[in-house]
């Protein structure tokens, strides 16, 4: 039954797009997809009727939900909701609607080989105007086995970009030279990042009480920007991608930056939260991977605030045979960075020798933290989605009543 529904959704999604003819932007990559999608949306939302994927609707079900302009809960096992989603798709596939978005900003993800090809087959030829690649890292190795397999998967959208479109890549996190060589005849290629060779790059980072100040170099000049509540340079990548898209679409950079001022770190993505005993939590619990954990630990180390640096790291899942090695490397990194207290959580992190304490139970880990936290302590909490590390964050929040607003996975289906 699930297979039949997926086939129906795929066919209807294609027909809707063919009928309504929106311009499409796709964002994929090993990390940073959702934040980049949000950044691009805020930068171009005044371009017209712009719609972006809600939540993390980025798979063979989520993309049709976005195309159907579905705003309700995920249908799950609710047949009425499924009928409503399918009904909306049928309506938009048959009737041209002037109120349908003229731009769709779609986050697309891949858990296994072939996922992105499947999603690309939903999009009629010529409709994909911009394809963004945020990173190619060793995630989902349980299913991809090699970094080359991940590269082949993540670059699938580039083959479908309109010839007058844009291929946008993070020069720091992708093999940009290879991509430029392979796709130089497909579409215009633009790079963003921290390297001065990038077409658009960020520099002169200064952390302040209100967030992170930095400068952006673009073909149209240099611009100052304040990213509210940010603590790490890595959080600037979505801003750079958004500016690149705005430039390609001839949007005034100052107007794009004004739109981006509304953007705050999303729940579970390096978000600062007030903790108990006048501590400060860095909530990075949305998901994890070796590279993302590395970024987070370095951000913790670099945070210019007095107090002990504490890391609570849950398992990084779906790493296959490389899991033991990657977890050991994270332990060594934490030691090298001078993390004061290193707490691990789950079966995979048990292998980390550098840990201060280890837990399998959220409540036990939370109680341990409650007993040791002092004023001024800074606590990074991170782990793969399946580890539910947000439960630990909620337990040590100064205002747990705000969990529904600030934390990931707080909707009823996750409780």
Written account of the structure:
The chain is α/β, with parallel strands linked by helices and 415 residues long. It folds into 2 domains: 259 residues, Mur-like, catalytic domain (UDP-N-acetylmuramoyl-L-alanine:D-glutamate ligase); 144 residues, Mur ligase, C-terminal domain (Protein-Tyrosine Phosphatase, Chain A, Alpha-Beta Complex). Helices cover 36% and strands 21% of the residues. It contains 15 helices and 15 strands. It has a 9-stranded mixed beta sheet with strand order 2-3-1-4-5-6-7-8-9. Helix 2 packs across helix 9 and helix 2 crosses helix 10. The radius of gyration is 21 Å and the shape is globular.
Helices and strands, with pairings:
Blueprint (H helix, E strand, L loop, with lengths): L1 H19 L2 E6 L4 H12 L5 E3 L9 H6 L11 H16 L8 E5 L7 H6 L7 E6 L7 H4 L2 H8 L11 E5 L5 H8 L4 E6 L6 E9 L2 E8 L2 E8 L8 H12 L4 H8 L10 E5 L3 E6 L5 H13 L6 E6 L8 H14 L4 E5 L11 E3 L2 H11 L5 E5 L7 H7 L6 H4 L9
Parallel strand pairs: 1-3, 1-4, 2-3, 4-5, 5-6, 6-7, 11-15, 12-13, 12-15, 13-14
Antiparallel strand pairs: 7-8, 8-9, 10-11
Helix pairs in contact: 1-4, 2-9, 2-10, 9-10, 11-12, 13-14
